[in-house]
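Hey, quick one: can you model this chain's 3D structure?
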Amino acid sequence: MTGLAPRIAFGALGIAAVLAGGWGAAHLFTASSQTARAIAWMDSDADDWKRFPSRPVANAPPRFDFREPTEDERHRYALAFKTVDAALGAYGEREDFGRFLERTDTLAFLAVKDDALLYEDYFNGGSHDGTVTAFSVSKSFASALVGIAIADGAIGSVEDPVTKYVPELLAKDPRYAEVRLRNLLSMASGIRYQERGTPWSDDTTVYYAPDLRAAAISSPIVEPPGQRFLYNNYNPLLIGLVLERATRRHVADYLSERLWQPLGMEATGSWSLDSEASGFEKMESGLNGRAIDFAKFARLYLHGGDWNGRRLVPAAWVDASTRLDTTTDPAPNYQYFWWVNTKVKNAHHYFAAGKHGQYLYVIPEQNLIFVRFGRTDPYRRWVELFEALGRRIATAASG
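Sure thing. Here's the predicted structure for all 399 residues.
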C-alpha cells in the first residue's frame, strides 16, 4: 500500500498534464476549429464579443438621447426602484434594488418611460460606455431587417420558400421546398436541432462553427414545417443567408444603413463573425453595442416602427412580429423572433430575450421600456420583475 499512493498521485498529475496540454493546444486552433473553440472557450460568455472577429455596425449623426426626467418624475417614480421584496427573490423581507441587481450578476439596467430615462445603472464592471452582447436579442434585429427587406422589395414575403434564396438546400433535403420564411421566423421549420452540450452538438455548431454558411445548410428536415415550435438556431442562420443574398449586403452593413444610423445610436456597434475567413455574421447571437442604444431599438417597436415621424419598419411587420396569434404560427408566445407575455391579461406586452438574461421589455400602454443585460443569469425571473415594476410605475403615475 505504501507504493500505491505515489503511483496514484503521479497518474493524476499525468492526466492533468494531458488535459492541460489539450486545452492549451485547443487555444492554438480557435480561429478555425469548432471543436477547439468548444474545448478552449467552453460555454458562451458575455465577453465573447472580444473573442470573435467582428464587422462594425456604424452609427451616424444626429445622435438621439433620451431626456432627463423632470423633478416631478424623479420624485414620483423614485420608490419604484427603491427595493425588491421577498416575493421577487430578495434576501430577507426587502433588499435594496441596486444591491439586488449587483447580486444577480447584472451589467446594465435601464427603465425608460415617455422617453425619460427613469433609471440607469451599471454593475459588475458594466458602464454606460461599455459593450454588451445581445445574444438572442440579435434575432429580433434580424427580424426587423426581414420586414424592411420585404418593404424594399428585396424579399417577396414571409410565404416565400427559403429555397427561393438558398436553393442548395434542395440537395440536402427536397422537403426544404416546403419551409417558408414564416416557419424560420416563428421557430417552426421542422429542421432537426439537438442540444447535447458536446463539442459536436447542433447547439455548439451554430455558436462555434467557423463557417456558419455551411452550417446553415447542414441539418436535415425531420418533420413538416409549421406544426411544432422548436427553438432552433439554424433558423436565424438561414434568415441571415436570405438577407445577405436578397439585399446583396453584409447583414451588419444593412443593419447600419437601415436601423443603427437612423436610430441615432451613440456608438458604433459590431456583429461578431464566425471567422475571418468566412466573414458571416453570427445571426443567432452576435450583435454587440451599448445598453442605451439597444433601448432605442425597443423604443422603435414601442412606436410601431415609426421613429420621430420617419417610418423605419412597417407597422404591420411590428404587429405581426409581436402579437398574440396562433392562426399561422404554432406558439402563442413566440412570433417573428420576438416573445409575447401571454400571462398578461387585457394588455400586449412583448420582449426580445437572450442567454444570460439579456432583455428588451416593452409595455406599450405605459409607454415603458425595461432593458437588462447581464454577465450571467442566476435570477431567471426578469419578466416577473419587469411586470412588478410596471405595476409600481402605473400606480405612481396615477397617484
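One thing worth noting: Residues 7-20 have pLDDT under 50 and may be disordered.
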